[in-house]
């Protein structure tokens, strides 16, 4: 260290190192105080974390992005208790549960079209005849958690009763059923601002005393990244995803804008995964999964897990990519470079714990291309050696990488790597 280095930066460096090295609790506490946990000035310049850990809800959940399954993208309204049970079974039998996919989330259409005599929500008697409590017991018996859906309006989007002005009763009913997660939608909202409609459910959930993950779904309308951190554990930043390349790429770009606001306890939500639903190619789904993981997005599977192709299983079960998403540092990766015509040769990157960096080379052009970068462009040291792990080939490249890095990437495909400082063999 140079002589005369002021003490304060050293102290801050030590604090941030301590935060990186400490158990999650201390990191969350550091995050709650808004301490940017990045090790070098180059990283801090590229990966603004000034809003990380602000406005914490502090309900003890979402220290890493949520993982699981949701019924909507594939089944929409065609759901019933048999499907939910079979999905829980399949999450376990396919090994997805062991990889961290633990929330089984029922979306719209579980409830009857009218409230009951005591003004309470009722499960649809045709499709959920055994009731939600029995389903929760079943799902819990598999070591999984159950999620449910309601709406911060007078109706849900499929015109079932909404929870606006029924927050306390509905939250306590969900808690009595053993529900672990609530996705809270935005239809039929009477034009009342989200900032007024979403906090009452937060308070109602808190009052139940049950830890319930609170997922805000106001479609990014009122820039929730700016205020939702103290309301929910995640907030949708965009409109619904569609199973197309155009929708997926648009949403990735919109979500990218809010990267500095994500952190342990509260995540930007660019909507659920479409992997396995048939509207994109294998390369496009691999890119979708890689970028969602890098952006610290919730990894909520949206396909029929009872009937997946081997390609779908390969993508969703990529443990190394999942580890990037679930890294305890919790800094959202972002788009760093766009080269060539329309900037379609893209480099996305994000810091990980242990001074590592995740890097995605994403070819959004229409033909195979080479994507190369100078290491300092993503915040690495231009004169140091790095060990580079290819997360899709499951191979460590040799020899170590210095100064520049690149690869040939097929159209719409994405390669993903983790850069780790190489251990120096010289003692000098
Ligand atoms: C439950 O839903 C699934 C998926 O839509 C469907 O295939 C199945 O026939 C339904 N079962 C019943 C008993 O309605
Ligand atoms: C309720 O809110 C308080 C204050 O933020 C928090 O400490 C507590 O963990 C919350 N409880 C639940 C069950 O969410
Ligand atoms: C399983 O998925 C394939 C498409 O990948 C589809 O053709 C088939 O009908 C599905 N089977 C069931 C039982 O849903
Ligand atoms: C990428 O670079 C390699 C090595 O320089 C070259 O052989 C290859 O043709 C390039 N690919 C494309 C699509 O430009």
TrEMBL record:
Residues 342-418 form the Alpha galactosidase C-terminal domain. Residues 1-28 form the signal peptide. Transmembrane segments: none annotated. It catalyses: Hydrolysis of terminal, non-reducing alpha-D-galactose residues in alpha-D-galactosides, including galactose oligosaccharides, galactomannans and galactolipids. GO terms for molecular function: alpha-galactosidase activity. It holds the Pfam family Melibiase_2. SUPFAM superfamilies: (Trans)glycosidases, Glycosyl hydrolase domain. Keywords: Disulfide bond, Glycosidase, Hydrolase, Signal. One of its GO terms (biological process) is polysaccharide catabolic process. Its EC number is 3.2.1.22. The keyword Ubl conjugation does not apply. InterPro entries: Aldolase_TIM, GH, Glyco_hydro_27, Glyco_hydro_b, Melibiase_C. It comes from the Eukaryota. Belongs to the glycosyl hydrolase 27 family. This is Alpha-galactosidase. It comes from Brachypodium distachyon.
